[in-house]
Amino acid sequence: MTNDGNVRFAKAEANGNDFLIVDATVVSPSVRPAFARRICDRHRGVGADGVEFVRPRGSGFELTLYNADGSEAEISGNGTRCVAAFYARHGFRSGELLTGAGPRRVTVLDGAGAFWTIEVELGAPRIEGRDAALGAFVLSVGNPQCVVTVADFPGDWEARGAALEAHPRFPERTNVEFMRVLDRHRIEIRIFERGVGPTASSGTGSSASAVAAIAQGLANSPVEVVTPGGSQKVIWGGGSSSIKLLGPASIVAEGVFLYP
């Protein structure tokens, strides 16, 4: 951060799930929660679902993610793709990105300029299975996830998502997806993200929903996951195999945030 509080940022989005990319060396860890709340504010800041604080590391980068409410999170699949898209413009094609959930291999598959297609290997899911009391499938894909299978999206899904996010079953809170199976290779979801609320898309939420569908015998890999912001593909071979998340990411803007 400069003496006058100016902080350079880039804004990127993956199917409408938007993130701000900031040099980790210019915003100290003690300031990051308040900084994230301010810069993510869609009326008084730049506006975003979260901030990725990034620094170079080996052949890749180290990412520290903060949600729009100022809470720190382990990983975002879409946020990771957004960071890769930003650096793809500067020659990055593949490497290891270190997240709060551990290292994740990222490969740029295609693209140019502001628009890129990127694959993220999220590792093997940790499956707890169906929780009958909640009526949901519980698992982790580097962050906690709770997937509710529905025939149709309930009118009060946002309120139900907020209740599940803060349920005592999840001491660190959880991300919530409502999943509708379209066919053996397509599902549609609605997302209530921990620390954000309803979002247009979620990479880890899409991955968790696909895994939940496959694990319960409702779908087969690969799975196209349809969200309000667009579609992405999830590949998972079951068991301890790594999840692969493939989808678009684009750079929206670059600028300077005037932080007081």
Topology:
Elements: E1 6-14, E2 17-23, H1 32-40, E3 50-57, E4 60-67, E5 72-73, H2 77-88, E6 94-99, E7 102-112, E8 115-123, E9 126-131, E10 136-140, E11 144-149, H3 157-165, E12 175-183, E13 186-193, E14 197-199, H4 203-215, E15 223-227, E16 230-235, E17 243-258
Parallel strand pairs: 2-3, 4-6, 11-12, 13-15
Antiparallel strand pairs: 1-2, 1-17, 3-4, 4-5, 6-7, 7-8, 8-17, 9-10, 10-11, 12-13, 13-14, 15-16, 16-17
What does this structure look like?
The chain is of the alpha+beta class. It folds into two domains: 6-122 and 248-258, Diaminopimelate Epimerase, Chain A, domain 1 (Roll), CATH 3.10.310; 125-241, Diaminopimelate Epimerase, Chain A, domain 1 (Roll), CATH 3.10.310.10. It is built from four helices and 17 strands. It has helices spanning 32-40, 77-88, 157-165, 203-215; strands at 6-14, 17-23, 50-57, 60-67, 72-73, 94-99, 102-112, 115-123, 126-131, 136-140, 144-149, 175-183, 186-193, 197-199, 223-227, 230-235, 243-258. The longest helix has 13 residues, at 203-215. It starts with 5 loop residues before the first strand and ends with a strand.
